[in-house]
Amino acid sequence: MENSEGVKIESTVVTEEPLISALDIALFVVIITVAYFWYFKRDKQSSSSEKKPYTIQPSSLSSIEQTSNSSFIKKLKSTGRSLVVFYGSQTGTAEEFAGRIAKKGARYKMKGMVADPEECDMADLVEMKEIQKSLAIFCIATYGEGDPTDNAMDFYEWLQNGDADLEGLNYAVFGLGNKTYEHYNEIAIYIDQRLEELGATRVHEIGLGDDDANIEDDFVSWKEKLWESVCSHYGIEETGEESNIRQYKLVDCSEVLPERIFSGEISRLKSYENQRFPFDVKNPYLSKIAVNRELHKSGDRSCMHIEFDIDGSKMRYDTGDHVAVYPKNSSELVDKIGELLNADLDAVFSLLNTDEESSKKHPFPCPCTYRTALTYYLDITSNPRTHIMKELIEYASDPKDQEKLKLMASSTPEGKKEFHEWILRDNRNIVHILEDLPSVKPDLDHLCELLPRLQCRYYSISSSPKVYPKSIHITAVLVNYTTPTNRVNKGVATNLLAQLIPTNDELPQPTIPIYIRRSQFRLPPKSQTPIIMIGPGTGLAPFRGFIQERDYARKEGREIGEMVLYFGCRKKDEDFIYENELQEYVANGTLTKLHLAFSRDQPEKKYVTHLLEQNADELWNIIGEKSGHLYVCGDARSMAKDVHSIIVKVVMEKGQMTNSQALNYVKKMEQQKRYSADVWS
After folding, report:
1. Of 17, 45, 317, 555, which has the most beta carbons under 10 Å away?
2. What is the pLDDT of residue 27?
3. Which residues contact 564 (CB under 8 A, 6 or more apart)?
């Protein structure tokens, strides 16, 4: 048939030729197939990239250069250094400690370098033995549920999965953690043990800093003994030379064009004017405040329900995630520093690292004005650490002020006591110190070098993307308190948020930079799995999202499991947040049971922990007989610990187990993600 048609086509006039030949059809099918594959693969990759919030794109030429030049060994060798201090930091403290160790090394003729493991090829650790009297120190924080910090994740996985021969590597580890959390310093302990397993030599025993107590004291004590061990190991002595050498030098930028000056951006210049997806810790999204309303019905405290508009941002979140909010310091405090130091806050400046080999050229985005640095980049409200006291001594003109600073900067028992009482107990920040020691007048550029970076604040997301795909909700208590010196300290983020009230007119809506941080706090994969949620106060936040998601599933006709919520507050008529919503979920059957504890509505205080003890049968029925999930959100210091003890007791009594068996049962629940906690101290 095909051959005869072919012959016929050749012998007839052109006007009778078919419009599409068999070859044309074949080519068309191939083109469509390729186009289909290309389109959907690209779409899949795009979707995948949207789900990776920590992918950080290069924002400048310098960051590209840093990534390509990742050999810290080459830098050590080319600059005659023998000490490298790595940091795994989520809030900046570990990075600060690393810098202090590297600086101290000069007193022992060990020229040091601070390094971010995320920017280094950590496999080069095997070559450390090629450098005479070399030492690698790791300042490593643990955060979340025993997780490594974002910048230490690759290094942690390299240690887990690799089997490098680290014989000849000399090392020491200092961990930063919080004892109120179950996984106290877990990452630092693992790294310390794993390095030894791979053949490295521990020069000094691991130090464990507790942020719930006095992590500064823990660090200083460990650091002093560290150098004793270093001297013994290498047969060296302290030179005795003071090393109060500036890490950064001041650069006058008065001639810099306005368009080249940072005005609060986290990393990339003009990033808030020209927003680029994906959004992350170095590239936050400037979100509009869509809703900001009061949740408390009465009383002198405030709790805000805030909704961030993410429509058009391509940002995606899951129920249980956290949102990071970048705050700014109050203009009142910033102006006060300028007044106390008689400084021009609108002068443009830059701080440039004196170490030309350092990948960190500036302590914060530069150039900028002093006002911008103090407003957006520097923490001026927390308690300064002892090294800042030491650096301020030279600026005190009054001998009494000098002696006080020297005492607090010392590691003597008297010095530690004075620092604890005058700084920590009385809750003084840098503004208070400058007010109370009036002769202390540091150069403002040096003060900017000394102060830690202002960190973003994390909030549990209190909404479900199934119900609110275009907005992120948070539930935040306004932080205000009076200190022992009769000053009123205000929470940086919550007091800023309280001022960002959306308007109903055509004026520009208030905005604030945010990004999403992924969490392991997740609903069970199956909607039929029963769950118990324990969240007093703002601990209710993630459970509001959980309930919304299950309610959405129920309305779609899917079967949902039992949902039991334990909520507590002071008074029903004062701070029972989301009351109407919760009662509605009870009425429609989404929320199976709502157990309420109002601590101050009766003579004897009543908490959610009391209700848990009373409902032991219900607890065991869900977590024991039905293999349900249990979630806790709120205060880590007391509530979460008390809940854990009660759960162990219930498992022991209702499950007829010994104490050790009950502890193992609860531990297995945690490993299976059936017992999850989202807590803070």
Report:
1. 317
2. 56
3. 530, 531, 532, 533, 592, 593, 595, 618, 622
Given a contact cutoff of 8 angstroms between Cβ atoms, the answer to whether 681 and 181 are in contact is: yes
Kind of pairing, strands 207-210 and 170-177?
Answer: parallel
Predicted confidence at residue 212, as pLDDT, reads: 86
Residues in the annotated binding site: 89-94, 141-144, 176-185, 211, 301, 457-460, 475-477, 481, 491-494, 538, 599-600, 605-609, 642, 680
What per-residue confidence (pLDDT) applies to 33?
55
The CA angle 416-420-425, to the nearest 5 degrees, is 170
List, as residue ranges, the binding site for FMN. 89-94, 141-144, 176-185, 211
Return phi, psi of residue 278, to 5°.
-85, 155
Sign of the alpha-carbon torsion through 103, 108, 109, 115:
negative
Record the tokens describing residue 577, joined without a space.
């947040």
* Domain spans, the chain: 72-234, 275-327+456-519, 329-454, 531-679
**Cα 529 to Cα 673: distance, rounded to the nearest angstrom:** 13
Give residue 25's pLDDT.
Answer: 52
User: What's the pLDDT score for residue 15?
Assistant: 33
CATH of the domain spanning 329-454, picked from 3.40.50.620, 3.60.20.10, 3.60.110.10, 1.20.990.10 = 1.20.990.10
Question: Which residues of the chain carry a pLDDT beneath 70?
Answer: 1-70, 240-244
Distances (CA, A) of 488 to 328, 381, 590, 604: 18, 11, 43, 31
Phi, psi of 602 (to 5 degrees): -150, 165
Active site residues: 460, 633, 678, 680
Closest alpha carbon to 196 in 169, 214, 177, 220 = 169
